[in-house]
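Practice problem: predict the structure.
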Amino acid sequence: MAELPAVPLTLEGAWILHQMFRIRRSAWRNLPESEQEALVEEARPALDSNRSALYLLIGHKGDLLLLHFRDSLEELHRAELSLAQSRLSDYLEPTHSYLSVVELGLYESTAKTYQALQEKGVEPHSEEWNAGVKEVLGRQSAAMAPRLFPEIPAARYICFYPMDRKRGEQKNWYQVPMTERQRMMHEHGLIGRRYADCVRQIISSSIGFDDWEWGVDLFADDPLVFKKLIYEMRFDEVSAVYALFGTFYIGLRTDSGNLPDLLKNFGGHSQESGRPQS
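Answer:
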């Protein structure tokens, strides 16, 4: 028999786009209050779709985070264009974005499926092998549809960050045997389950789509939960030995109808109308 595939099976669901913006303060301040309110009202369909959510970013990395969940990449692009075509976008300076797709890793199902096919004498990647894998993925996808195509949690706070698995000379996740990766991921998942009553976690894959391999979204009503969960996971073997982390973003959820009042904190307004400066 040929060597078993090293790649675990995965299920993919909703597409995700994170958009981070900074308010063009000088131009915004020069708008009359009535114009500010009109621009926000015009953009509300793009900001308040039932599968988009708006957050106030905390810190210097931006002012606003707009999160979109959609069922296809085309729908995600339309959501992006909807805001870009609004007059409000003239006053939003993009600072970052992140594209990914909801992913559920199936390490345990992969091991069972590969072993069962091997015991039947099925050659890896053969027509019969691929049919067996497809049947398992179809069954799992139907069972996990709510997790693959979730609604954006209504929690007050969001924590988003990208991450990689190490591929260095000394430590390379992708050269670790499947059984060892399965063991470590199982132990890693046990930590997250202990926080399931106070934090919602959505993992998305960005391999081939963005600069990191995965995106992690955490949703909670108490922001301290983010620190406790991530800190505890740092002691886990998967994170301590094989994980690399990107920039962290923390946001406070808001409704776009609150934006005119909230944006007054960026310096108020004058009665002279102005447009963004190039």
